[in-house]
Amino acid sequence: MHGRVKVRTTEEERERKKKEQALKVRSYRAAMGRIQKKREAGELDNEMLSLTVQILLRNPDVSTLWNIRRECVLEKLSKLKEEEATYETPTDEKLEEEKQTGEEKDKASEKKTLPEDKAHSYFTCELDLTEQCLMVNPKSYNAWHHRSWILEKNPRADWQREVHLCNKYLKFDERNFHTWDYRRYVTEKAMVPAAQELDFCTDKIKVNFSNYSSWHHRSLLLPGLYPNQQRDRPMSEEKLQKELEMVLTAAFTDPNDSSAWFYQRWLLGSGAQLDRAPRIAAFRLESHGAVLALDKPYPDIKQLRTELVGGEKTVLLNSWLPLDKLGTSWKCQQNFDYQRNSSYSLWLSDQIVNLSPMSGSENGAHYFAPPHGTTTCSKDLLAELQTQLQSCLDLLEFEPDSKWTLLTSALLMRAIDFSANHETSLTNLAKLEKVDSLRQGYYKDLAARWTLESELARWPQSAGFPKTFDIADKVLLESLPYGQYLVIADEITLPSKLREKLGDSLPKTFADLKRLS
Amino acid sequence: MDFTTFVKPSNGGGGDADDGGQKLQFWKHVEYIENHGKQEDDYEYCMTEFLRMSGIYWGTTALDIMGQLERLERKSIIEFVKRCQCPTTGGFAPCVGHDPHLLYTLSAIQILCTYDALEEIDREAVVRFVVGLQQPDGSFFGDKWGEVDTRFSFCAVASLTLLGRMEQTIDVEKAVKFVLSCCNQTDGGFGSKPGAESHAGLIYCCVGFFSLTQRLHLLDVDKLGWWLCERQLPSGGLNGRPEKLPDVCYSWWVLASLTIMGRLHWISSEKLQQFILSCQDTETGGFSDRTGNMPDIFHTLFGIGGLSLLGHSGLKAINPTLCMPQYIIDRLGIKPQRLPRP
């Protein structure tokens, strides 16, 4: 029950409405009673069909009535089959005979196609009803489902007609997700080429930029039509550049409309698949144990084969114990007989990394890959990003508080050069905390992520790496994302406020683990 | 926000706090739910019999959260639920004379859990019904007529979890794989089927599904959390998709998902509370979808549930995954997964 405004009515009006409703209740009850009796008696006939129509036209959500209609259709179809079986099946000989006279041939085909036509008319009747119901409630799950059920049953289903129906419905409501879902289903059935669908999308977006549904549909088509070989972007760089141009034009048309900005953030992202395997973030080992951090949580580490190769042997690491609740960092207390002069590498499923020996007299080896991976960026794409950034900065001159422009310019800066633009992008986030205060907590956490990404990227160049990690000067930090990356350190120095806040959830260090074991 | 007072002149009931916001009309809501369905010939009531079982779940849960469950007749409700179990399939119909469906099966199980009365029904038959609806690709039909939707994946695992029968019944791995195939690259959200646009209601189902199957690590929390917190509008209410109107039920779905993901602090709780309270009907009790609209039992649960999740005083704690009072979830020994705040 959505969107029904409460209106004040007079006593008289209320009385009239009450009477009207009492009548409706009575006729509903009578029809439902009759339907149930008939169903119990197995009377799945034309009367049943007309009884259910009365109610469904008013209330297409009564799913049981659709079930009954399907039972009726199935009953009618099976009767047709019986009828068909009583027709004489023509043998080859007979067919030969029929070929001889045109007249006989016509007669035979008339006989054969008749049941098929009948069936088709049952299906058409159901399709008409769903269309009428969708006029009443275009969001009726039941009506949409009934429609596809009928079409699947009909060997002569006209899928092209369904595509046109979607075109029509999307003109009434371009955001109805039922219509879009149905469209994806029928365009596949009708074998509409993806390129043609993309054109449809482009047209829709041109009519109205504020159409998240259309941008979404587009995002499904592009990766297939313009694949990205390295899989580090959602689509080919060439296409990506064109999409960026298009989406920015859209976004600038109405900078307060979010649809295009969401799409833009996706374009700037890595295009990583949700189900991709975790990768090694950090690893450190000495003779009696090892720690491993993954770039994403993976509680079922036993599913991944971890092997240490070096010192002329291969050791299977299989006694992992979790160091956090999420399954991002792990320890293993096996003896490795580490040999200083040998080189070691670590396998995690199909990923292999080479370990670096610890510096100085320390025994052991480590590996570290900071979280913000650098993606390659062609000259052309880089130029486009810079143009876009400039456009955003120009817009900010006039509208310094434009939320989406502030966020997008920060994202563009990071896409261009995340370390050089780090401080400026943080300034934008600080500003966003004020102009978009509802989401203050989000911007704070995002700032923490960006800060850690920057610090972790710089860490390997610092003197204490990997034994000490010091961010005591980052006093604004309120959370510590990427904490698992620090598992290879012996000592972590944090701003005192953050340390206090983290309490028990302070990330474990390599030194802690040694003490514990 | 003052639209409320414009549409419905203040009844002078002392509901308005000094900040222009409203106070929870606790007893009016209790009365609203208690009276819901007392007049059987009520037009609305009659026309919604096709979802009666869910209606009862909404009402009992809201009352329980308010500590007033005893106002409803336990015995007659349990009798009603029992009559709705289909002897052939084991599933539950919304009411007698209608067909069984996963949606109402979950509602029935939830009601029985609230009344601690699961032993009253044939539980094995329910398990068979749910298991029988799983498809080779891991998805679930809602009933034998073949509609597939991520809502049904949630209903299946929620029903089995409440029955304590998730182990060795359905193929969990395949079920997970299917739900994951409904995740969208653009926003990390979920739709009703693979390729379907992200929608807060379905996101709640899928996040809840991963919470029940202990697989929240599969979510792209940063991406999805951002999209979800962007649902909050200046009124404080949340919408279900970009550029849509705010709504009390979407507020619950987004709020619950963010809570499960440990990202409740990404929206303004204060503003959301104001919005929910502005959707109360101060005359009749009950909550509507938006300020100034007609109240109904569905939005009343999600209004009360949302306030409970936001820590409103005088309400029992609600579990964000199962939308049931937390004490019942504890009593059943169930621990739906939740991510910590970063």
From TrEMBL, chain A:
Coiled coil: none
EC number(s) from the headed UniProt entry: 2.5.1.60
A Gene Ontology term for the protein's cellular component: Rab-protein geranylgeranyltransferase complex
Positions with biased composition (Basic and acidic residues): 8-20, 91-113
GO BP terms: prenylation
GO MF annotation, one: Rab geranylgeranyltransferase activity
Superkingdom assignment: Eukaryota
UniProtKB keywords: Prenyltransferase, Repeat, Transferase
Signal peptide region: none
Keyword DNA repair found: no
Keyword Ligase set for record: no
Annotated stretches, region: Disordered: 1-20, 83-113
InterPro entries: Prenyl_trans_a (IPR002088)
Biological role stated in the UniProt entry: Catalyzes the transfer of a geranyl-geranyl moiety from geranyl-geranyl pyrophosphate to cysteines occuring in specific C-terminal amino acid sequences.
Name this polypeptide is given: Geranylgeranyl transferase type-2 subunit alpha
Organism field: Drosophila yakuba
UniProtKB/TrEMBL annotation, chain B:
Any Gene Ontology CC annotation: Rab-protein geranylgeranyltransferase complex
Record carries keyword Protease: no
GO molecular function list: metal ion binding; Rab geranylgeranyltransferase activity
Coiled-coil residues: none
Keywords assigned by UniProt, alphabetized: Metal-binding, Phosphoprotein, Prenyltransferase, Repeat, Transferase, Zinc
Domain Prenyltransferase alpha-alpha toroid, first and last residues per copy: 27-324
Keyword Phosphoprotein included in the entry's annotation: yes
EC number of this enzyme: 2.5.1.60
Membrane-spanning segments: none
Record's protein name: Geranylgeranyl transferase type-2 subunit beta
SUPFAM superfamilies: Terpenoid cyclases/Protein prenyltransferases
Catalytic reaction list: geranylgeranyl diphosphate + L-cysteinyl-[protein] = S-geranylgeranyl-L-cysteinyl-[protein] + diphosphate
Gene source species: Drosophila yakuba
Lineage top rank: taxon: Eukaryota
Enzyme's top EC category: transferase
Record text on subunit structure and interactions: Heterotrimer composed of RABGGTA, RABGGTB and CHM; within this trimer, RABGGTA and RABGGTB form the catalytic component B, while CHM (component A) mediates peptide substrate binding. The Rab GGTase dimer (RGGT) interacts with CHM (component A) prior to Rab protein binding; the association is stabilized by geranylgeranyl pyrophosphate (GGpp). The CHM:RGGT:Rab complex is destabilized by GGpp. Interaction of RABGGTB with prenylated PTP4A2 precludes its association with RABGGTA and inhibits enzyme activity. Interacts with CHODL.
CDD domains in alphabetical order: GGTase-II
Co-factor requirement: Zn(2+)
Family: Belongs to the protein prenyltransferase subunit beta family.
